[in-house]
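Summary for the funding panel

The consortium committed to producing paired sequence-structure records for every protein in the target list. Below we show the first two records in order, beginning with the earlier of the two.
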Amino acid sequence: MLSIVFDNIQYLFYKRNRMAITGKILNHVMKKFMKAEVAQNARVQVELPNGDMYDMTDVMLLENAILGDNETHRLVFRCRKSPYNIGKIIGKL
């Protein structure tokens, strides 16, 4: 159910020829997820295009050095491979 909200938002951004989700959209989606206690206590991971799952370890707000660019800042999520075997995902909620 919440993944549908994210998919719709993602579709709107790709429809507008944007290549990435903004912090504003990320905040909107995260607020929806954080209403559920299971989401509040869930491990945060990033899935790479090859299917590997990495644990998120850091979130940074960085300033772009390119002058005249309309995207002056970026949110960067740093991650690392989990030292534990977490197991297979059994379903999407």
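The next record, for a separate protein in the list, is shown here:
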Amino acid sequence: MFIREEKMTTFTKTEYMAKKFSDKQMHILDVAEELIAQKGFEGTSVRDISTKANINVAMISYYFGSKEKMMASLYQYRVLKTRENFSEFADTIKNGKPEMQMKEMIKYIVNQLFKYNYFHGFVTQELRHTESLKDELMEFYQLFVRKLDEVIKKGVTTGVFTFTPKAEDLLTTVIGSTLFVIRNKNFYELYVPHKDAESYQKEAEKKIKMNLLMSVFALLGYASE
């Protein structure tokens, strides 16, 4: 897996995406994602997608096979884009203090899960375990773990962190807690002051970020100045 990750860094984002999807496929997937974000998976038809993408409805079958297969491609497309964006993001903060890097990475993960929460409505366990997606997700998670591990070690070396929890355990805590909040809105909204769906989304994200930061920094034994 790590060999494949290193290989990916030799390509630009455009080159790597081009190896996975054609320009036309990426255009269709961008349109599909925009519509699903607005109307949900069930509320978005193949005809809606083809109309907005300005293509014949039969082209969806030509490029993907079916709506379900297009959704599998869309999920893979989103995973790849988020992974590449995270690599760039991590690069921009790599010279910062370890506590800043850890804080920003946690906020980034939570933000991305909330931003693309509509995927959780149609992405099934079966879909996640298809061979191509399984590999993409594995490499995606390993990238996060590697970056978190670098920050933990840097923090311990500089005396900012006291403990060395496993990076994979921190990632599990962050993703697992955030997904629980996203998937259990009826429960969590009882504890989040809000006026409407939009304010709930904003306040729930802020609340889980704050709680995760406190939890993770406690696990790290963060010694603030």
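Regarding this second record: The chain is about 75% helix and 0% strand. The radius of gyration is 19 Å.
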